[in-house]
UniProtKB/TrEMBL annotation:
Quaternary state and interactors: Homodimer.
Pfam families: Abhydrolase_3
Entry domain remark: The main chain amide nitrogen atoms of the second glycine and its adjacent residue in the HGGXW motif define the oxyanion hole, and stabilize the oxyanion that forms during the nucleophilic attack by the catalytic serine during substrate cleavage.
Annotated family: Belongs to the kynurenine formamidase family.
Compartments, record wording: Cytoplasm, Cytosol; Nucleus
Leading EC class: hydrolase
Predominant subcellular localization, coarse grouping: cytoplasm
Protein name: Kynurenine formamidase
The organism of origin for this protein: Macaca fascicularis
Function: Catalyzes the hydrolysis of N-formyl-L-kynurenine to L-kynurenine, the second step in the kynurenine pathway of tryptophan degradation. Kynurenine may be further oxidized to nicotinic acid, NAD(H) and NADP(H). Required for elimination of toxic metabolites.
Length: 344
């Protein structure tokens, strides 16, 4: 199906794009300016592998813990040195367009968070083509329920996802916890450079492995449903984050999802992180002073008053509806990295 056959012309920006432009918009490596596309992917993988190796060698941990019966349903749990009865837990869902990536190369934030007294859980799920998107959402839901059941006295559960993982984390805003027999103590969401409306993905090469139908995409698009959903805990915060050098489509997805959260009953914030790209934004989680590793009773205090930050308010709903979420000079497709590579 051609993009031009979808909906009404001008309905949303991506529907006016050529197939090539849409493909580039959803290839984050094409927008990296500090490195070539292939080098950016290689560097990202190397940093993740090294961070995981270091975490496993130096931190108290339980590795490959099953949260279900499936072969891919495992978590790695890393603990702070000092034991505490009510540890906060930080769950991370890796990216990779639901078809690449692994918990075994995703422990970026373990060192800085465990040093702050936070337990970190890196979640594995069955990527495509083995797993369908519906299965991945179910697995992630069960991983959250597993942590709550295993550690019922936790000091709060914080969910963080990057790219496709941000989508999976966002789907937890819609989860029916009753069917899992537990209500997780959710205190915060960190949604980093995510995709929240999956329909554009259907018209890119990413869908070769995913095989999404329109019904699949709509059923698994939190952008379409979150405004009507009810927070499990009214104090739970949602932080939507995008990197300055993410593509315009990634900026649009994040900004519109933030706006949709504001239309509902969610306590949401939006932040564009300066001078980072789609991969660097996660690589920097290895740093102890990174704003995204500030987990605690008030994890969003670093964003107060920042130039590119926003919080839900009546003013947001009335006056910010047309605000563009990316600098004007990023509106055109990047020409720096035009070679087609991998799934990123």
């Amino acid at each position: 199906m051609a993009i031009s056959d979808v909906g009404l012309p001008g309905e949303v920006p991506w529907k006016k794009m050529s197939a090539e432009e849409l493909e580039n918009q959803y290839r984050p490596s094409q927008w990296v300016v500090r490195l070539g596309a292939e080098e950016a992917l290689r560097t990202y993988s190397q940093i993740g592998i090294e961070a995981t190796r270091r975490a496993r060698a130096t931190r108290k941990s339980l590795l490959h813990v099953p949260y279900g019966d499936g072969e891919g349903e495992k978590v790695d749990i890393y603990f702070p040195d000092k034991a505490a009865e009510a540890l906060p837990f930080f769950l991370f869902f890796h990216g990779g367009y639901w078809q690449s990536g692994s918990k075994d190369e995703s422990a970026f934030m373990v060192d800085p968070l465990t040093a702050q007294g936070v337990a970190v859980v890196i979640v594995a799920y069955d990527i495509a083509p083995k797993g369908t998107l519906d299965q991945m959402v179910d697995q992630v839901t069960r991983s959250v329920a597993f942590v709550q059941t295993r550690y019922p006295s936790n000091g709060g559960i914080y969910l963080c996802g990057h790219s496709a993982g941000a989508h999976l984390a966002a789907m937890m805003l819609l989860a029916n916890w009753t069917k899992h027999g537990v209500t997780p103590n959710l205190k915060g969401f960190f949604l980093v450079s995510g995709v929240f409306d999956l329909e554009p993905i259907m018209y890119t090469s990413q869908n070769i492995a995913l095989q999404l139908t329109l019904e699949d995409a709509q059923r698994n698009s939190p952008q379409l449903k979150v405004a009507q959903a009810q927070p499990v805990d009214p104090t739970c915060r949602v932080l939507v984050v995008v990197g300055q050098f993410d593509s315009p489509e990634f900026h649009r997805q994040s900004w519109e999802f933030y706006q949709t959260l504001c239309q509902g009953e969610w306590k949401a914030s939006f932040e564009q992180l300066h001078d980072v790209d789609h991969f660097e934004i996660v690589e920097n989680l290895t740093q102890k002073d990174n704003v995204l590793t500030q987990v605690g009773p008030h994890p969003w205090h670093p964003f107060r008053g920042r130039q590119h930050g926003s919080r839900c308010s009546l003013l947001d709903a009335q006056t910010r509806s047309s605000r563009p979420a990316w600098p004007a000079w990023r509106n055109s497709v990047s020409t720096k990295n035009t070679k087609k590579i991998s799934q990123m």
